[in-house]
C-alpha cells in the first residue's frame, strides 16, 4: 500500500488556525475517507510529529495529514530524520500572502501572544526586512522568505505545493490542493462553519491603533506589576474594542504608504519571482 504524508506548513498569519479548526471539525469525515489528521503543537513539534507518524505506522489509513505553521521554521535536518523512516510520499502545502499583510498581522499577534512583545512596529519591521532579504542572518522571529522556506521543506524530503491566501477562498484553495495530491473529493471542507473566535484566539485581530496600549500592558507584565491573568483580561478588552472599531474603520490600512512600499519591495525581491515560477504572484491584488 502506497502511503502519503502531507504537512500543512503555514507559514504564520496565512490562515493556519482557520484551516486547523476546519480540519478538526471534519476529523471523523476525514478518517472515513482514509485520512488521519493531527494538529502538531509548536512547543513539542518534533516529538509530536514523530509520535504521530509512529502511531500511524500500522494504520490502514493511506493518508496522514499534519498541520503546524512551524514546520517550515524547523531545522530541515531534524525534520528529515523524522520523515525519513516513513515509507511513502511526503508533501508540504504552504500558503503565500503579501508581506504588507503578514508583517503587521505577525507583529500584532506577538503583542497578544506568549512572546509579550514590547518593541515598536518600526523596530520589528526593520529587523524582519533584514531577515527576509538575507535569511542566513539569524535575527530571530519568523522567516517569511518563501524561497528559503520552500528550500527547507524540500531539504527535509517533501514535495512542496504553494497556494495563494484569500480570506474568502482559502479553504477552497487548500482543499483543491489536497485533492490534487490524494485524489479524494473534499467538498465538505469548504462549507464548514467554525465557531466565532473568542479570547486571545489567533483568529482575532488587534488593530494597529491599539498596539501602544498592548505594548504598555506587556511591559507592566514583564515588570511583574501586572499578573498574567490580568494581562489576558486587558488584552481581550482591546480585542473587543478592535471588533467595535472594525465596524467603522475596517478599510483603514494598518500600514502607511511608505511602510507598504517597503514590504512590497521585499516581496518583489524575494517572493514574487519564486511564486511566479509557480504560476501566480501576490502583489497584483493589493495594488488595486
What does this structure look like?
It is a single chain. Helix 3 links the parallel strand 2 (35-39) and strand 3. The protein is of the alpha/beta class and 288 residues long. The longest helix has 22 residues, at 228-249. It has 12 helices and 5 strands. It has a domain at 4-97 and 142-196 and 271-287: Rossmann fold. The chain is globular, with a radius of gyration of 19 Å. The protein has helices at residues 16-25, 27-32, 45-55, 76-83, 99-112, 121-133, 146-155, 170-182, 187-190, 211-222, 228-249, 257-276; strands at residues 4-8, 35-39, 63-67, 89-96, 159-164. The model has no long low-confidence stretch (mean pLDDT 93). A 5-stranded parallel beta sheet has the order 2-3-1-4-5, sandwiched between helices.
Kindly report how far apart the N and C termini lie.
Answer: 49 Å
The mean pLDDT is 93
**What's the CATH architecture of one domain?**
3-Layer(aba) Sandwich
**Class per helix and strand makeup:** alpha/beta
User: What share of the residues lie within helices?
Assistant: 40-55%
CATH class of one domain: Alpha Beta
**Poorly predicted runs of 5 or more residues:** none
What summary fits the major beta sheet? 5 strands, parallel
Q: If strands are numbered along the chain, what order do they take across the biggest sheet? A: 2-3-1-4-5
Classify the beta-strand content into a percent band. Answer: 5-15%
Per DSSP, the total helix count is 12
**Series of H and E elements:** EHHEHEHEHHHEHHHHH
Computed CA radius of gyration, to the nearest angstrom: 19 Å
What's the number of extended β-strand segments?
A: 5
CATH fold annotation of one domain: Rossmann fold
Task: Tell the overall outline.
Answer: globular
